[in-house]
Every structure is written in structure tokens, then in C-alpha cells.
Amino acid sequence: MCAISNSPGRRRGWGWLLAGALLAGGGPIWAQAEADPAKGGVAYAESVLVAARSRYQREATNAEAAWQFGRACFDRAEFATNDTERATLAVEGIAAMRALTAREPRLAAGHYYLAMNFGQLARTKLLAALKLVDEMEHEFKVARALGEHFEHAGPDRNLGQLYFQAPGWPASIGNHAKARKHFEHAVVLAPDYPENRLNLLEAYCDRNDHHGIRRELKAIGEIWPAAKTNFTGAAWQSSWANWEKRRGALQAQAAKKLK
Known about the structure:
By secondary structure, the chain is an all-alpha fold.
């Protein structure tokens, strides 16, 4: 079993499913809330990557060094300015995570960051991205079975996003009912993590579930002040830029739904 990580959980994290082949319509309302390199996030992500790569090169068989490197590859790829840069980082992360999961098949972190880097690679593909979705689903399911609390309920959060954003059958695995169940479970596991709440609110808006919308709006308002003090520092800067924009957009959408 994987020890639960108390380090900064994977901030932002789902821009990569906006790859053209995966859009089943206009995309989620938070599609425009991408990280802004001008705000310093790229410099921080680069510094973490350099340190993580150096440690991994020195301690290639150290499981923690390996998955931290896989995470750093994913995070730095969030700020990539072109497909070549993003794919290069993703492939580097995938290689490290494949090696780690081969050595440590019961380590949730390895499977989780293998899936996350598959996601970055999917952003650089068109129709080939659909094949990567199946691999992502498999690895997130394995990570969930081994450590569902990892990265603030990351496996459920990301499975939910896969099902929410991917096209439905027969093109792909998209299924909004499945997505909602995973979002709901992520909130059970990590109720104070802002992204879990935002995902669930979006799912309720999609379903026109007025009761769920009201409940999540209230819950988000209650957890937000404490989250501001719990998730702080450079590691969370771009997350908050995304979450604040996304919260505002969802509040506007919810207001229209509740009229």
C-alpha cells in the first residue's frame, strides 16, 4: 500500500483533457483557467523539476525520488508552450513511472503519476489521445485500489474528470453518471480540498440538480477560508489562480440554474 502524501496535491491537473480529440462539445467552463507563466509558476515548476531530476538520477531505485520526479514532470509540462516541449516532459515522466511500477507494482503514486503523464502526452495527440484515455483509466483505477486517499483523493478526482470530459460510448469512456459518483466519493475522502468540491458542483450544474448545487455552493463557502490557510506558498499559487476563476464561473452558472 502507498503511504498517503501530505505534500502539495496535484494542482490544476486537467487541462490536458482539452485535447481536441477528447472534446465532446465546448469543454468545461474552467477551460480558460490555465496557468499563467507570467505569475512565476513556470519558474517554480522548473526549479522543482531540476531538483527532482537530479535526485532521481542519483537515486534511481528510490521509490519516493522516482514518483516525485514523475510528479515534477507533470507539473512542469503544465507550463509547456508547445507540443514538443510537453511531449518530451511527458515521455520522461512516463519512462520513470513505468520503471517504478515495474519495481513497485503496489505503490499507488507510481500508477497515479503514470496516468497523469499519459494525460500530458494526450494533450499533444489528436485521435491517438483516445487510446491513451484507456491507459489512464486503468492506471487511475489501480492507484485508487492501492491508495484512494493519495493526493487528496486524486484517483477518484481524476477518474471523475476522465468520465466527465471524454466522449461517450462508442467513441470513448465518457459517462457523466460515473463521473458524478467519483466526484462524490472524492468529496467524502477529502471534503476540504477545493478542487474536489468544484468538480462536484460542476457535475451538479451539468445535471441541473438544484439541491446538489445549493449544497455544494454552501460547502464551498464554508471550506474556502480554511483552504486559503492550508494550501499556501509557491506550490499552490497557480492552483489558487485556477480555483478562484473556476469558482467564479461556477457561481455564475449556478445562479442561472437556480433562477
